[in-house]
Task: structure prediction
Amino acid sequence: MQRTPASTSTVALRGAALTMLDDPFTVGDEAAMRYEADALVVIEDGRIAAFGDYRTLAPDLPEGVPVTHHRDALIVPGFIDAHVHYPQTQIIGAGGKRLIDWLNQYTFAAEQQFADREHADLVAEIFLDACLSHGTTTASVYCTVHPQSVDAFFTAAEARGLRMNAGKTLMDRHAPAALLDTAQSGYDESRALIERWRGRGRLGYTVTPRFAITSTPEQLELAGTLLAENPDAWCQTHISEQRDEVAWIAELFPSRLDYLDVYDHYGLLGPRTLLGHGILLTEREWQRCHDSGTSIVHCPTSNAFLGSGLFDWSMAKKPDRPVSVALATDVGGGTTLSMLATMAAAHQIAQLGGHALSAAKSFYLATRGSAKALQLDDRIGSIAPGLEADLVVLDLAHSPLTRLRMKHCQTIDEVLFMLMTMGDDRAIREVYITGAPLSLGARQASQSDLVVA
Ligand code: GUN
Ligand code: ZN
Result:
């Protein structure tokens, strides 16, 4: 067979590879999963051109295409963190409080520093370095109330060619004065950001009312207007994380049926909306999420750290009205940027709730499931022809313990469970962004300015 010469931008990866091609909550784990023990992933112009068994595909590989062979490794789609606050990177592990006190004591203090563009630039760089070194290639990101915090984040993400969604947090009450916008200024600033960043790189704008406690009805109304005027935008906020929060919402919005109905009333629900937490949702609210196509974002390490409670999988995935669920770190309420560790935490929380979450389902949530919740599953979240080549190479033997454990794994399911249970950033051997490998670890903190008072 005559081979065609390679285009200069064609590269290929060889090694074991795992991807989800369907929803395991619907079709079952085996039918949803595609595992190739010896795969070839061909990448052309930053997109996956072919994926399959090496022996089948190799004969058709154009001459001269460089093939990188990853041994003792597993090639997977880049992880997707569906809810994370980059300004809270500096307060991970600030503990001992529940939600409202934690927000007042640590979060609002940290977020005020993002009025300073230089600070925002610095933290955005550190945050994105950390995401990538943990294998996260896409995230849905909360910035602060300051528009410059969004500019800092998008500037850093654009320079790296990343697919990232983010938005300015809207908050016009119940927070320190330095963190408040107004209904009108929040609308104007969000609109200007949407216009400034639309169509640039792989960035997407997310209308981001923090939660209904910190937004007046007027601000929520204008958030709905922003979404109606910008159908390409996403929406993210928090819901039903802790009891006193839900009680406060009932006081603030006495004429609404429940917490979800507040967002519904202002036109904030739909297939491009992601609601963080959803620990205390009622049957009516789950049903309405199903009917409106709204996704709930499960943030297991945050729910444990802030004492929020156990995510209710039996409610989320009732067979007659399943709700789209994504997975996220929720740093800094969450305690890690590792989606592997977050998958492990999701499994642990499910166990505590009497529900067995398989490794395949956890893996789905961190890849294709979150891509689907973001309506980006035609671009990212799987290894399949046509998708953007954001890929991660997991190291199956990154420590003596994992090497030992690997020797006793019999199935890909066991390997996956081992990786998420024992894995963190040390398990990330390589990250490819639109087919280009990153040099992980190239950026190290160069300053020495740590002082403990
Ligand atoms: N609810 C409103 N704001 C926040 C936040 O920053 N983190 C968490 N976990 N919950 C919230
Ligand atoms: Zn959050």
Summary: The two ends are 71 Å apart (CA to CA).
